[in-house]
């Protein structure tokens, strides 16, 4: 018996000790404040007063703009129909009544789930981008809705929490929505946010769960954590979900550390943040802990680098205040935290034990310039009757009655202040406006103690919400844009324009915002300068449409070019522009819009941002506008985007711009510049865009490959990252001279042949190898022996326009190919030149020599002794070319006479001077070579002409009688 009592007593003592340590100790001494001395306001050297204005009701968070001298604040009022109101107070212009001038800041480009622009803000932070731009991060507790945009019970689903980012230009009365971050796995009970730079932020979840018993217990045993989100909206929890006892308004200090207060823990945890990439888990390390010993709310940083935070000294009064924040009062304490070297000094600055002035304080801002303190409270004076809600004035509707099948009705309750002072008609009007339903749909209003139950018909609760299109184009407002030149009315319909329900519209806008910050692929990058001399040449001046074809990133990023596009004011301008860009790159008809190079709404956002660099107040449909004359646009035409150095010496060449065009250029037939650019397009065009999912490398999913190959048909060409090396079966005889040999001959070690058995049955011996590959951008001028991309044949006539070439089929003859019309892929010319003898072609009735153009000049050409490389694949001056003749290697093809050229004014490219000349016969059907009697016979095609001297070559089959040298 005694032993049993001893065991029971020991277990009870252990349980009591654990309970004391984990729960009772903090509850008694930190939350309730047992034994804490609370001082009156008179003990502190501050003179405090209230700023009474009905628009300032329910201030949850504030931010002081020291540069603009404006106090930005969010106000939550259950009586206000539009949700949270974002206000700006001019703190240096005091009015006679003691208040300050107030300016509302409107929210542009934002659609809430209810179909309007209302938000429900709990906390926010600001990131200063430059002298005129500030980004605001708002924790938005949006009402939950279903797929049709109808309200659903929040007690069943939890809060619809998002982080919305807005851009505000100082001095203006609006801010534009940039993006919405929604991640219910990591952002589920959002409380507050701290911007950490570069578009990234950290946010607190004040509970470990959004619903259930665990959420209720969090207030007693602790719960909640911190989440990090990168600029790409990739979010990661950086602390366990039960690290804190209700984490609240965190802040980023002047030292770069993250300070996280715990409301019921009475501490401030100090963390360091180290990131490794937008899509990688960051490192969030605890550095220190500041013990305040009092429930805390929102941290704020001042201009000196000090931290300010309000506290709640009397827990009992705080709980009463939560039950009825209008009739009861909650004392407040203001703390200042100063960092001195590696230690923290905690100082009590203000306290009001009677809550006469400091009542329900949630945030405080210190004006370093004047020494004033601005504090926000969640309640207003009692003389202003209004609807109020529990906890932070976010009006929460709770279902009380089950829906019936014959009448879809529900009962909702909300707390009401001085309800008896409002007559029945006013009650109906107020409730109908708040619930956004017609007044006649209110069936009953019944008072029950301190609450009022309202019954109404849900079928008419969202009649005001309508679908709307994703974007507006030129002419959609009933005023058609211009049509000139060859532009015809575009009857194509954008399948992705919608219309969308408000919630879907918001998601589409968020997606488009993220895409608008990404460059257009398969196009010259915007940081490169343009070859303006060639673009603005009088004989072939480029048009704005051709800018879209060849330089879409420059049009979307350079302010002058963006303004020029908008100034054209074509009917359906933006859809036309996107269509031109995608057509030129072969992605206009892609089955998935993710495979298109750009989309309309992201492109519109790019254009708007670009033009705002020369006109900060510009909106997309401000045209016609007197500020945008032709002279104004020409003055800004060459203006680089903000942030790009004007000292950049990288200039995009016309060859590079033309090399990206793999699709249809609609202006090639009638526009001089496009006709001029045709000469720069290689015979084998670069790879067009994929219709395949991205992979890290290799062929990727064979099943996906076959699916998209089938969808693309005969024009399918693989993406470079997924291209298989153009290798077929390799001949083991390095000295093989058999013309009938179908294998590839290469002296270098080859990689393993890819297994394509699942892609179809192919006869490896008698059929051509079907391998998707990428054409070499250098074409016939490729000088890399080991290049694994596709090239023209050694005898392919350059006058033959291959559009598109058959990239997928490899020629069986390779270096032995003598077909002038062969459109199949071959090894590099440098390899064939070294291993298989002559590289050249004689064809045509007149025996005219056709060779592929060299696009680069030999760097040894300028030396006194010239180029000595017999196998040099670069261009050279002719053997008789005069010194005053300028050879334009990139603009003209290789000379037909090559080393036998005797023209002193020839400005075309030739072989190296060290290369031996042809046989003694004339070039044509009876050229030199044939059965030469010299030590080395040149290998020639069946139709004449001896080739270049080769170390060892087969007996030529030419009909000529001349000797080979």
TrEMBL record:
<feature type="compositionally biased region" description="Basic residues">
    <location>
        <begin position="954"/>
        <end position="965"/>
    </location>
</feature>
<feature type="compositionally biased region" description="Gly residues">
    <location>
        <begin position="918"/>
        <end position="948"/>
    </location>
</feature>
<feature type="region of interest" description="Disordered">
    <location>
        <begin position="911"/>
        <end position="965"/>
    </location>
</feature>
<dbReference type="InterPro" id="IPR051288">
    <property type="entry name" value="Serum_paraoxonase/arylesterase"/>
</dbReference>
<protein>
    <submittedName>
        <fullName>Uncharacterized protein</fullName>
    </submittedName>
</protein>
<feature type="region of interest" description="Disordered">
    <location>
        <begin position="750"/>
        <end position="769"/>
    </location>
</feature>
<dbReference type="InterPro" id="IPR011042">
    <property type="entry name" value="6-blade_b-propeller_TolB-like"/>
</dbReference>
């Amino acid at each position: 018996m005694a032993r049993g009592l001893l065991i029971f007593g020991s277990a009870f003592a252990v349980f009591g000790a654990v309970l004391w340590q984990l729960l009772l100790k903090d509850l008694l001494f930190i939350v309730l404040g047992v034994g804490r001395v609370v001082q009156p306001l008179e003990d502190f050297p501050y003179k405090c007063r209230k700023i009474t204005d009905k628009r300032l009701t329910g201030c949850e968070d504030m931010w002081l703009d020291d540069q603009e001298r404006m106090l930005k604040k969010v106000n939550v009022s259950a009586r206000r129909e539009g949700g949270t109101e974002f206000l700006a107070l001019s703190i240096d212009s005091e009015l006679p009544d003691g208040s300050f001038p107030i300016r509302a800041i409107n929210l542009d480009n934002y659609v809430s789930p209810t179909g309007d622009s209302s938000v429900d803000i709990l906390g926010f932070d600001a990131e200063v981008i430059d002298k005129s731009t500030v980004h605001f991060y708002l924790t938005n507790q949006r009402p939950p809705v279903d797929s049709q945009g109808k309200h659903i019970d929040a007690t069943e689903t939890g809060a619809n929490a998002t982080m919305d980012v807005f851009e505000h230009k100082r001095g203006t009365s609006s801010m534009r929505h940039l993006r919405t971050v929604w991640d219910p796995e990591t952002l589920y009970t959002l409380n507050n946010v701290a911007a950490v730079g570069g578009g990234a932020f950290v946010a607190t979840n004040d509970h470990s769960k959004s619903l259930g018993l665990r959420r209720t217990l969090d207030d007693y045993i602790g719960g909640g954590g911190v989440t990090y989100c990168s600029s790409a909206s990739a979010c990661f929890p950086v602390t366990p979900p039960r690290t804190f006892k209700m984490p609240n308004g965190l802040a980023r200090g002047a030292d770069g550390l993250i300070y996280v207060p715990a409301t019921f823990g009475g501490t401030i945890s100090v963390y360091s943040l180290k990131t490794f990439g937008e899509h990688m888990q960051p490192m969030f390390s605890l550095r220190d802990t500041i013990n305040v010993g009092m429930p805390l709310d929102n941290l704020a940083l001042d201009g000196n680098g000090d931290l300010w935070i309000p506290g709640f000294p009397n827990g009992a009064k705080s709980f009463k205040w939560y039950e009825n924040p209008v009739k009861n009062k909650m004392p407040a304490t203001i703390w200042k935290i100063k960092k001195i070297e590696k230690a923290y000094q905690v100082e009590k600055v203000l306290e009001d034990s009677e809550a006469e002035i400091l009542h329900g304080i949630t945030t405080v801002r210190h004006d370093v310039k004047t020494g004033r303190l601005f504090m926000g409270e969640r309640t207003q004076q009692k003389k202003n009757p209004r609807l109020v809600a529990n906890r932070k004035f976010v009006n929460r509707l709770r279902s009380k009655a089950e829906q019936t099948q014959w009448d879809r009705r529900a009962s909702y309750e909300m707390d009401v202040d001085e309800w008896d002072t409002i007559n029945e008609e006013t009650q109906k009007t107020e409730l109908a406006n708040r619930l956004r339903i017609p007044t006649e749909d209110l069936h009953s209003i019944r008072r029950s103690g301190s609450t009022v139950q309202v019954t109404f018909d849900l079928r008419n609760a969202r009649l005001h919400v309508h679908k709307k299109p994703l974007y507006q184009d030129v002419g959609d407002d009933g005023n058609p844009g211009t049509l000139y030149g060859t532009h015809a009315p575009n009857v194509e319909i954008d399948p992705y324009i919608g219309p969308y329900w408000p919630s879907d519209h918001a998601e589409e806008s968020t997606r488009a915002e993220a895409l608008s910050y990404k460059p257009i692929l398969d196009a010259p990058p915007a940081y490169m300068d343009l070859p303006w001399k060639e673009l603005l040449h009088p004989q072939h001046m480029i048009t704005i449409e051709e800018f879209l074809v060849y330089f879409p990133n420059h049009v979307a990023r350079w302010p002058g070019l963006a303004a020029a596009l908008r100034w054209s004011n074509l009917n359906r301008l933006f859809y036309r522009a996107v269509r031109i860009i995608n057509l030129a790159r072969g992605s206009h008809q892609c089955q998935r819009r993710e495979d298109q190079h750009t989309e309309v709404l992201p492109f519109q956002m790019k254009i708007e941002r670009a033009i705002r660099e020369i006109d900060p107040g510009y909106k997309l449909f401000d045209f016609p506008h007197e500020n945008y004359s032709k002279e104004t646009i020409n003055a800004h035409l060459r203006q680089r985007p903000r942030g790009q150095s004007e000292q950049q010496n990288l200039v995009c060449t016309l060859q590079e711009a033309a090399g990206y065009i793999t699709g249809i250029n609609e202006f090639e037939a009638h526009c001089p510049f496009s006709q001029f650019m045709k000469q720069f397009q290689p015979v084998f065009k670069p790879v067009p865009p994929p219709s395949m999912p991205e992979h890290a490398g290799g062929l990727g999913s064979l099943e996906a490959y076959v699916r998209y190959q089938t969808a693309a048909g005969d024009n399918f060409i693989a993406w470079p990252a997924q291209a298989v090396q153009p290798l077929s079966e390799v001949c083991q005889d390095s000295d093989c001279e058999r013309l009938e040999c179908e294998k590839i001959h290469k002296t270098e070690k080859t990689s393993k042949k890819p297994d394509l058995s699942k892609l179809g049955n192919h006869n490896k011996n008698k059929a051509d190898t079907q391998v998707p590959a990428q054409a070499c951008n250098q074409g016939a001028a490729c000088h890399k022996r080991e290049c694994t991309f596709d090239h023209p044949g050694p005898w392919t006539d350059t006058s033959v326009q291959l559009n598109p070439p058959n990239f997928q089929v490899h020629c069986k003859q390779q270096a032995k190919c003598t077909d002038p019309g062969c459109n199949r892929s071959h090894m590099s010319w440098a390899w064939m030149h070294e291993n298989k003898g002559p590289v050249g072609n004689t064809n045509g009735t007149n025996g005219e020599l056709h060779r592929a153009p060299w696009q680069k000049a030999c760097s040894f050409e300028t030396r006194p002794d010239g180029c000595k490389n017999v196998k040099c694949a670069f261009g050279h001056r002719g053997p008789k070319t005069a010194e005053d003749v300028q050879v334009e290697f990139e603009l003209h093809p290789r000379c037909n006479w090559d080393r036998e050229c005797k023209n002193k004014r020839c400005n075309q490219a030739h072989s190296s001077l060290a290369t031996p000349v042809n046989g003694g016969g004339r070039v044509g059907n009876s050229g030199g070579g044939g059965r030469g009697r010299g030590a080395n016979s040149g290998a020639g095609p069946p139709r004449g002409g001896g080739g270049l001297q080769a170390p060892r070559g087969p007996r030529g089959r030419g009909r000529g009688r001349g000797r080979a040298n």
